[in-house]
Design a protein that fits this description.
six-stranded mixed beta sheet; 9 strands; alpha/beta
């Protein structure tokens, strides 16, 4: 299993403990330190377990680059991912392993998860809002939305490596991009239980660059739809595009990029996705711009 770390001295021990207490013991625990400048490595060194291997990067490569370094060094048949500030429940590995061992067509297994504040307060359950899909066509659901937070994933190492790992050129959505490529190679299995707890930090990297989602995600989603056009109906393409444009609009609108959100809501409405809500956002965006003294069509 692979844990990328960057300045995680306050959280890495809890993450490691959740790995060490699994009822199925992992073959290896690869901690990829992404050029931390705090005491992360000292904390890792305080844990005595021969399965822990530290891979130290000399320059910061970001989560995707760090995970790729772990993938390159991995030796096991299966690879699971965990972030340094999240943790697994004790049966996470065993339940996913059982599903993958039982069916050679399964290339990836995932599970439900919950999000918490840094103080431990419950925020939401993942699959309640993003229902999962299993089987050979899970990739279609991933085109519309990502129901696989990275710490929930276990996948076959040979498939992860065969499709090239994480794309380091993507600043946002590199995990989703990889899951789609993997899922196009086989089937997905889903454990319908919460087996992962994820901490959502204010001001996290994902939060601060979330407004770049349309810039990165929509282009690669479009490429996959074009490449798989013979396997997608016109209604499926319309629904996928509509959801992606609507959600990009909301991300931009609530992120303060009001003018940029207008185009996405108009496209979503034109595609018939949540038409009324999309149309309601358009005057809200215009009124917001007017109140700030900015007018659509006057910015360059």
């Amino acid at each position: 299993m692979i844990i990328p770390t960057f300045n995680a001295e306050d959280t890495i021990l809890k993450a490691l403990q959740s790995v060490l207490t699994q009822d199925l013991k992992p073959l290896e625990i690869l901690v990829v330190d992404d050029a931390s400048t705090d005491g992360t490595l000292l904390q890792v060194a305080s844990v005595t377990d021969e399965r822990i291997r530290v891979i130290g990067l000399t320059k910061n490569c970001g989560p995707g680059g760090a995970r790729n370094a772990g993938l390159k060094a991995a030796r096991g048949e299966y690879v699971a991912f965990l972030d340094a500030d999240d943790w697994w429940l004790e049966a996470k590995l065993s339940k996913q392993y059982a599903l993958m061992r039982a069916d050679s067509k399964v290339v990836l297994a995932t599970c439900d998860s919950v999000y918490r504040t840094p103080e431990g307060e419950f925020k939401r359950r993942s699959h309640e809002f993003l229902p999962p899909n299993s089987g050979p066509e899970a990739w279609k659901t991933l085109l519309a939305y990502n129901f696989m937070p990275t710490p929930t994933v276990m996948a076959r190492r040979e498939v992860l490596q065969a499709v090239g790992g994480f794309n380091p050129e993507l600043e946002f959505g590199e995990d989703l991009d990889l899951w789609i490529r993997v899922c196009l190679r086989g089937e997905v299995a889903v454990v319908p239980e919460v087996l992962v707890e994820i901490v959502e930090w204010p001001g996290s990297l994902t939060g601060t660059i979330r407004h770049t989602q349309p810039e990165y995600v929509i282009p690669f989603i479009t490429r996959y739809m074009e490449a798989q056009s013979e396997h997608l109906s016109a209604s499926e393409v319309r629904a996928i595009r509509g959801r992606r444009y609507y959600e990009s609009g909301t991300v931009l609108f609530y992120g303060g990029h009001t003018l940029a959100s207008l185009r996405y809501f108009m496209v979503a409405a034109g595609l018939g996705y949540r038409t009324l809500k999309s149309l309601i956002f358009i005057p809200k965006a215009v009124l917001s711009l007017v109140s700030m003294g900015r007018y659509p069509g006057t910015e360059h």
